[in-house]
Design brief:
By secondary structure, the protein is mostly helical. It is 69% helix and 0% strand. The chain contains eleven helices and no strands. Helix 3 runs antiparallel to helix 4, helix 6 packs antiparallel against helix 7 and helix 10 runs antiparallel to helix 11. The protein starts with a helix and ends with a helix.
Length: 233
């Protein structure tokens, strides 16, 4: 749940978005009530580094926007079932593109949104287009290229090839927990439970999301039960 202070900050930022030179606004954010406005808030935001702060605010909005879907993804992944679907969330790519327009180095937004589109929502074309926009802003970012390849291979049913491309990104600080859980899921489907367990342990160690940590605990318990049952004579 987002704090009241964060809601006030987001509301205050709304008034200043149109004043940014060259900023192309994303689609409208969720309703947040009346914005406090005022010169003091503008001066504070400017003193903190306006573009990056606004990018952080838009990232919060993106997480809130897709949060309900992520809960469903975590629930499905915890049961090791197929995680996909094409419905809903038409704004996710536009919101991520808006963040990118504020801060071209904000790769997490692109990786998060493209992962949702390519692996969870069944819309690989939108995912790859967003990743290409990220590459245009940051041509040296090899993670974008890895995601493009992994999404393409997943679409073609090549799980081993997809997880092979994702594997080098899993220890990066900007790798979303969503992608780690997808990689673990792919390893389970490939019969490589030890690699899946290692990823779930990494989620437990590094994720700040209680939902993903709980999913990882449940998955590890299930993998442990499966290993014990296989070892019995």
């Amino acid at each position: 749940m987002i704090s009241a202070a964060a809601l006030v900050l987001i509301a205050g930022v709304n008034a200043f978005l149109p004043r940014l030179p060259g900023f192309v606004p994303p689609l409208p954010p969720p309703s947040l009530g009346a914005a406090p406005g005022g010169a003091s808030e503008e001066a504070l935001l400017l003193s903190l580094g306006l573009r990056r702060l606004l990018a952080d605010v838009w990232m919060v909005r993106l997480l809130l926007y897709y949060g309900a879907a992520e809960e469903a993804v975590r629930s499905a992944a915890s049961e090791s079932s197929e995680v996909s679907g094409s419905g809903g969330y038409p704004e996710i790519a536009a919101r991520a593109a808006g963040i990118l327009s504020l801060d071209p180095s904000f790769s997490y937004a692109v990786l998060y949104a493209s992962g949702a589109l390519g692996f969870n929502l069944g819309r690989p074309g939108e995912a790859i287009e967003l990743l290409r926009r990220g590459l245009a802003a940051d041509p040296g970012n090899w993670r974008y290229r890895a995601y493009i390849g992994a999404i393409g291979l997943t679409k073609n049913g090549d799980r081993r090839g997809a997880v092979g491309l994702l594997a080098p990104t899993l220890d990066m600080p900007d790798c979303p927990a969503m992608i780690k859980s997808i990689a673990a899921f792919l390893y389970i489907k490939l019969g490589e439970s030890a690699k899946a367990a290692a990823i779930y342990r990494k989620i437990l160690e590094t994720s700040h999301d209680p939902g993903y940590r709980e999913m990882a605990r449940r998955a590890l318990a299930r993998l442990s039960r499966g290993a014990r049952s296989r070892s019995r004579p």
